[in-house]
Design goal:
Blueprint (H helix, E strand, L loop, with lengths): L11 H7 L4 H10 L5 E4 L2 E4 L4 H15 L4 E5 L11 H5 L5 E6 L2 E7 L6 E4 L2 E2 L22 E5 L14 E5 L10 E11 L8 E14 L2 E24 L18 E2 L3 E25 L2 E16 L1 E7 L12 E6 L2 E4 L2 E4 L2 E10 L10 E7 L3 E16 L2 E25 L16 E4 L6 E4 L9 H4 L5 E30 L2 E18 L1 E6 L16 E3 L18 E3 L1 H6 L1 H19 L10 E2 L5 E18 L2 E22 L2 E25 L2 E12 L20 E3 L7 E15 L2 E13 L2 E6 L21 E3 L16 E3 L1 E6 L3 E14 L4 H4 L5 E14 L3 E2 L3 H9 L7 E2 L8 E11 L2 E10 L2 E3 L14 E3 L2 E11 L4 E8 L6 E5 L5 E8 L2 E9 L1
Parallel strand pairs: 6-9, 13-20, 36-42
Antiparallel strand pairs: 1-2, 3-8, 4-5, 6-7, 8-9, 10-11, 10-55, 11-12, 12-14, 12-54, 14-15, 14-16, 15-22, 16-21, 17-20, 18-19, 20-24, 21-23, 22-23, 23-26, 24-25, 26-27, 26-28, 27-32, 28-31, 29-30, 32-33, 33-34, 34-35, 35-37, 37-38, 38-43, 39-42, 40-41, 43-44, 44-47, 45-46, 47-48, 48-51, 49-50, ...
Length: 993
Amino acid sequence: MKKSRTGVGVPATLASKHGLKACSLSLAISALSAGAMAQEQDGMTEELVVTGIRASLQSALVEKRSANSLIEVIKSEDIGKLPDQNLAEVLENVTGVQITREAGVGTGVQIRGTNDNRVEVNGVSTTGSGAGRGGINFDDIAASMIAEVQVIKAPEAKTIEGSVGGTVNLKTTRPLDLQDTLIAVRVQGEQSSLSEDGGLKPRLSGSWGDNWSTDAGEFGVVISASYAEQDVTAFRPRADRDNLVTSDGGAASAQDFDYLPIQFFVQDYDNYEYETTNFAGTFEWAPNENFKFYFDAILNEQERLQESSRVQASGVSSLIDVAAPDAWETVNFGSLDGENGNQNIGTIQAALRGVIPAMDDGNLDPNLRLSSDTGSRETSSDIFRLGTDWQAGDWSGRVEISSSSNDTTNPDFSSTLNFINPHTAVGSGNDNGTPIQYDLSGGSLAFGIATGEANAPTTADLLNPENYVLRDLNQAQDKVENGEDAFRADFTYNFELAGFNSVDFGYRYNKTSSTSNEIRSNVGLRSMAESPSGDLFESILAKGPDNFNAADGRSLYVRDFLTIDPEQALSNPDYVLSVLNDAIEANDEMTGGDTDPISEPTSSTAAYFDISETTDALYAQANFEAGIFRGNLGFRYLETDVESTGNRVTNDEVVQTTQKGSYNFFLPRINLIAEVHEDVLLRAGWSKDIRRPDFDDLSTSFSFDTSPNPPVQLGNPNLVPEEVESFDISAEWYFAPSSMVSAGFFHKTRTGLFVTHTDSAYEDPVTGYRDLTDPCEQGGMYNPIADPNVFAPAETPVGVCVDTAQTVNGAGETTQKGIELAFQYDFSEMEDVIGWASGFGVLANYTWQEFEGGDEYYDPSSRATQVFSALGHEDVTLRAQLLDNSENSYNFTLYYEKYGLSARARYTWRSAYRSEDFGSTTSYPWGFPVVQEDRGQLNASVNYDITEQFSVGIEGVNLTESDVEQSCVNEGALLCFQGLTDRRITVGAAYKF
């Protein structure tokens, strides 16, 4: 027989509609406005039934209000229905939270300006797919699996350490909270406006749950599953103008003024196809009212396939003294804060429109290079939790064991072809000249084939496999295995003494591990004799995407070209490799060459690491409530041992090395709440926390890049965590049901900062060339697989000295401070006055934050130094700033819920911020992170209940197709990157049995 758990004062229809325990919602309604619960009419009581958006907002507010620390809460409107499809975009609704996107999909979450946060599921630590510490990727878990999202901004002593901005706790549905049998199904389809495939990609989710009362106690089970496919596309053009033509240099292209010529072009087409499967299961057994046993299992599988392409106009820099632009624009670099204080760099002219002719002698530039990029990710993550909640008199507690794991493989089969223009000369190198036309006016960063030039290739030339040769092939099967096993025991003792009512204390042990194994093969072909032509591997060639104008209607772009088919490279890399090796063998027979066949990827011994940490943590926390005051105070103490194993390779001899380290921290934490009025709360919190270094920063191993620009990252097993001291103060006024206004201030100080120490490779001041032999006596490290590029004469084989970088604990400190404002209002109480319009409600928040301090500076690149010197500024540097941190941001949401209609529109805006996400390059342009300019985005959804059980809906993401603009050097300075993202529309239906 099923036991009724309908809360007092809340009608059974409400409990049935949401399938969850309604007592918290009853508390919300009575606490916020008792008068709204019922009205006497003809001796009968008519109860207000609150559902959907209002129910979730109301329940979330009561949880936030009753918490003894500063938290933010988002609750599901219904089973499997958070406000957004993507968990990162769900979190964007929270005050003080900003997100970053990849190809328009929310992937990164910044809480109070920082990426250094933790992600938990049901209070269990999660592990990520790389070397980072933040936890599971937000796009790995479907939002339909989550019933509640909790953001802990001010930690208590019992909050697990390891976060700077906050801790995100994702909660699933609990079976013993169900009121009725739960059966819910949702079917949707999503379409991307820029996807070449078009059509709807399926999203399916369903949940089943029930509980039973038996002689052995109460049992409950909830099972949820989801499957989703997603196809997202972004166009990312890039234009480098980081060189210099001086007025007095004597070049044929010189003008009466100094200017920035064209250095490089990229037409980057990014396409990602996601396939995600999620399962969540929970079993609960309460043999009596004093004990409950539970088991959670959450299994996630995601395959993110990348089928991207790049068109590059390389070797453009060889013509800067020849090809004069037809038009220029004025670039204002503004002021840079560096080691020498604020320097106002000033203005300079930059190339805007023109034609770069194809050279028929000399370097035979500019070259047209075509790449297919398949840097995919296959991730499997599991989270298990087994424990018991118990109560005995004044004692209660929890004992729990948990395990989290994340196994990720990064398959990659990326290639580059050189187009050989049949209308220009060909030398011994495997590239030659193709004329390029460009027009950067209107912020389009557009370039294409200069079809008006006499030696320009035709469409037939560009689609002829005979005019292509193989230049590069990069293969990878990198593997990362992360895991954490934990045991925790938490206890609470209730008592009454001088305002204190309970004490919490406990112990937690965890072992965290990370193993990384780079499995790679990189081949670079630089001569025509060793490079097979495309007609020898025509079966694996494909026409590149020709819709690069779909986002902004541009007329100038490269639309006709061939690449190695990324779909074949992903689905059958062994076959593609065999075709290429057959082509190399056939080419050797024709040319008499002896080019080695391309090998399968092998483990990079020098990049392997295996790192483990064990942590013992104790905490104690006293909870108090006296008069208008309540809160808690306590501490957390931890000891961590680190063991890092890696390989060092010297003269081809592999030596495995193991280094150990340890540290301990005492972390006090205090939270105080004052209920100064029936509906007004004041909060204050002070705490200390730590941020552990990423695993690759602890490695004794290192790996190389095929580009000569990125420094070799050397690990440091002796790193210790940064320490973070935080202070919060806020005021909250709950002035009506589902309504609230709040204002808060936070301040964070970080010490023991992770800073980068760089050892630069020597460059000849006249030629700019670097040392090409090992060891690099004058600085840096020898990279045996890097293409020397501009750091050596043309056709120099791979291998060059490059910079090294190592993370260390710096002596300085940084501060992060900010103001958070939030407003929420529901018009439902005004139904008698405004009628149908009482269905409206608004949510709005604004965050201002500032980052200061730090003793790390970015140095400009050699070409940038030349430009700054020409403007009269020597020794220009840039003080390192907090990446992905916008000074200002806001969200505004308007919703309507009445007559079965549920609609919501949210506009999100954030100001400019420094970013490392700038397309297909791994080194900083101009030596500095780029600035992503101000951007807003509009999302909206409409759902309609056809019956009480059946509803249909439509959702739109990035409805206005807001572009991304990125500037080099400074905000509003030199436009150098763009992101033209898609609009995604989702249609679907849901049914609750």
